[in-house]
Design brief:
By secondary structure, the protein is mainly beta. Helix content is about 0%, strand content about 50%. The strands form four sheets. Strands 13-14-15-16-17 form a five-stranded antiparallel sheet, with no helix packed on it. Strand 15 and strand 16 form a beta hairpin. The protein is globular and about 50 Å long. It starts with a strand and ends with a strand.
Length: about 190
């Protein structure tokens, strides 16, 4: 049995097929010209937050077991079969970022039993040996991003109970951007 579905996206269409073509997705123009064949690269359906994988390089993503816990995984090549689980345990590790220059992975971790989250980092080759980058009780730190040379990690921070969200830079706070959810104003403060 062959099933397919068509989803319109601007001037592109995605044709998803199951059955005879086994999990293959084709990107095509509105007039039917096939541009690219897309391939599913993880077997588990609970994978999210992919980062990297460009030019056949390292792909980092999250394997989630629902709301219970999530772990960081890695594929050395997006099309390879092998997957390495980089973190373990009952923590909620999400929003990874990969730095090719330093071969490091940074991510947000909410440890088991905690309501706050911090930014952690690990070596992408060895994994599991974590370095805690931030340690701020009653704060949620999220969405880390490396500078191209890997010397800086930019992330956002917000109090657990809500309030002003700020953008921070590690290892040295060079510029903090404050954005209030209740207003459209942005405040800049420098501590160089």
């Amino acid at each position: 049995m062959f099933q397919s579905g068509i989803v319109g996206i601007s001037s592109l269409l995605l044709l998803c097929s199951c059955g005879a073509l086994k999990h293959t997705t084709y990107e095509m123009t509105a007039n039917g010209e096939i541009l690219t064949s897309l391939t599913k690269v993880t077997e588990n359906n609970d994978c999210m937050c992919p980062v990297g994988g460009d030019n056949g390089g390292t792909l980092v993503f999250v394997y989630s077991a629902g709301d219970a816990f999530a772990n960081i995984c890695k594929k050395d090549n997006p099309l390879s079969a092998g997957v390495t689980q980089m973190t373990e345990g009952q923590n909620y590790n999400v929003f990874p970022t990969y730095c090719k220059a330093t071969d490091k992975i940074a991510f947000r971790a909410r440890l088991e039993g905690s309501s706050s989250s911090d930014i952690y980092m690990m070596n992408a080759t060895q994994g599991k040996a974590l370095t805690q980058i931030t340690n701020t009780p009653n704060q949620t730190e999220d969405h880390p991003c490396f500078s191209r040379d890997g010397k800086w990690i930019v992330y956002d921070r917000q109090p657990i109970e809500g309030g002003t969200s700020q953008i921070w830079v590690h290892p040295r706070i060079a510029l903090v951007l404050s954005c209030s959810a209740s207003s459209s104003s942005v405040k800049y403060s420098s501590s160089l």
